[in-house]
Amino acid sequence: MVSADPHDKDDELVPAQGSTGVKAAGELDGSSYNPMGNPGKEHWKSTYIDAPGFGEQNNIFFAAVEMTRMPMVVTDPRQDDNPIVFVNGAFLDLTGYSEDEVLGRNCRFLQGADTDQDTVAEIRAALAEHKAVAVDILNFKKDGTRFWNGLFIGPVFDREGQLLYFFASQLDITSRRIMQMSTTQAQKMEAIGQLTAGLAHDFNNLLQVAIGNQEIALKSLGNPNLTEKMLAKSQAALQKATKLTQQLLAFARKQRLEPRRVNLNSLVIEFSEILLSTLGERIDLRLDLQPALPACMVDPHQFEVALLNTLINARDAMPKGGTITIGTSILSERKKIEAQRLIGEQYVVICITDEGEGMSRDVVERATEPFFTTKGPGTGLGLAMVHGFVEQSHGRLAIESEVGKGTHVKMLFPVATGENAVAAGNSNGADDDAAAPSGEAGCVMIVDDNPDVREMSSAYLASLGYRTIEADSGEAALDLLKDAPVDLVFSDVIMPGGMNGLQLLDEVRRNYPGVATLAATGYSENLLEKPASAKDLKILPKPFKLNDLAEAVARLLPARRVGNT
Ligand SMILES: Cc1cc2nc3c(=O)[nH]c(=O)nc-3n(C[C@H](O)[C@H](O)[C@H](O)COP(=O)(O)O)c2cc1C
Ligand SMILES: Nc1ncnc2c1ncn2[C@@H]1O[C@H](COP(=O)(O)OP(=O)(O)OP(=O)(O)O)[C@@H](O)[C@H]1O
Ligand SMILES: [Mg+2]
């Protein structure tokens, strides 16, 4: 019989202290529903029995198991495919099957096409190690109705430690799941509302400054000094707006990243001067860098911004000063990696630790939400950017904090493999010697569906001595190329219509090998679709500074000429 105590007599009640087994001690893996409402220290991770079998079925325990509304199952792992050898009435009520329809079958018949395979794998792994496991899993009743099953499975051993059975309890937690989902939905709507309001507010202010100053500039054309001053102010406001969109793109993980093979220790050391000056004298910055740290594929500039955002938060949490430690380490323990919902083999961890005021659980949960701030002048975009950047770099941001004790902010980045190392080499290779444009610099075709952007680039390049041609789509550009003697095609990546900029430039490269190519985009996702022929394509981040455009064009044109003659 199945019992928690090997010494009990058939019909006697057994005091809980007399039972044997391994207590779960609140350490059970999994995030599943917990019917006890607390971590649970008195239920069993595994249990020992003296003799296998179901011989004695007329005692109080069997009666209880049959009477309880908690569905229960016992399987026999010593038989082929671990079949069910016992189910109670509640299990049959829950699933709608009869006893002879389930005895002898593996419990996986409750699963269906929509059941999460990671959860199934989690169960499989736990059972293979003879360990207890608790999961929420999507199951199906006999009539096809779906239900969320709060499943707990634990092993039962004999005195010699031989595995005899698995015991499981099931619980229909569907209504709780639905409630949880609608709460999450409501929270999402609130976050979106907050985001929209914050965005509109910040943008409005910046637009106000830009428009107001331009208006004054227009009215003061007779006074060039004043005009210049006003235009400079207007430009500063627009640059701030640019920064804001970049932070939002970072949060939305659509920022254009230029990942390179880097060693985070070297970056931290390289940045330490600017970090120190930002943190001020009250902060004691310590480095605890793991030697021989493997390289990662990370955009160094965005990494610096993320590090600064995190350090500024740490500084703000210690108004009276204190110590901030930047530590690096290697994470290769599978369990810990999986606990972060990551799948790579090895990660580099950079951990920023402060001894400041810390955060309550509520604040930790909301800290990465855009525009969430507890500070008077904060914009609430710092950690949103860090989170977006780390996710886009295929890593994870983890925050641990305790009120009054301090905070650890960890960024995990995957270790670079041989493959992406080659990619990094290629993208750097393009940046060779630059040359200033001359009056005879050549002909540039500017392709952009936005007329303002197109005209601005065109006017600027013309002012530098280039001849320019404009096209508003990829198709129009290819048409024009048939007759015009173009030296370089500069195209926006995202354009409405059939052909995007990368496809256009791919065509150009194939059909006009003498023509140089340059792209611009604010997004990075499209880079994934970069055609094989365009691996080394130079891409300007958008919005670009006109100087950067000039530099990129100057670099490409002379190099091309040499190659062609
Ligand atoms: C005692 C016991 C009860 C189980 N109960 C369920 C269950 O209610 N629902 C379910 O989806 N899987 C249940 N399983 C898990 C499946 O039987 C199976 O172990 C899981 O699908 C992973 O193995 P597989 O990849 O071979 O299918 C149970 C397993 C055991 C040992
Ligand atoms: N190291 C930390 N210690 C304590 N609280 C922190 C820490 N880091 C972040 N927080 C909390 O998380 C909130 C959000 O941080 P986030 O960096 O996104 O925005 P912010 O610092 O408020 O504003 P911004 O960075 O845009 O100026 C902070 O307002 C603060 O409450
Ligand atoms: Mg901040």
Instruction: Measure the end-to-end span.
Output: 91 Å
Estimate nothing, just give the exact number of structural domains.
4
Q: Label the overall shape.
A: elongated
Q: Which structural class fits the helix and strand makeup?
A: alpha/beta
Mean pLDDT metric: 82
Named CATH topology of the largest domain: Beta-Lactamase
Major sheet details: 7 strands, mixed
In this entry the ligands are:
flavin mononucleotide, adenosine-5'-triphosphate, magnesium ion
Strand content: 15-25%
Low-confidence residue ranges: 1-19, 420-439, 559-565
Keywords:
seven-stranded mixed sheet; disordered N terminus; binds adenosine-5'-triphosphate; alpha/beta; 565 residues; Beta-Lactamase; binds magnesium ion; Heat Shock Protein 90; five-stranded mixed sheet; binds flavin mononucleotide
Polypeptide structure, described:
The protein is α/β, with parallel strands linked by helices. The protein folds into four domains: 160 residues, PAS domain (Beta-Lactamase, 2-Layer Sandwich), CATH 3.30.450.20; 64 residues; 155 residues, Heat Shock Protein 90, CATH 3.30.565.10; 114 residues, 3-Layer(aba) Sandwich (Rossmann fold). 40% of the residues lie in helices and 21% in strands. The protein is built from 16 helices and 19 strands. The strands form four sheets. Strands 1, 2, 3, 4, 5, 6 and 7 form a seven-stranded mixed β-sheet that branches. Strand 17, helix 15 and strand 18 form a beta-alpha-beta unit. Helix 8 packs antiparallel against helix 11. The longest helix is centred in the middle third of the chain and has 46 residues. It is elongated.
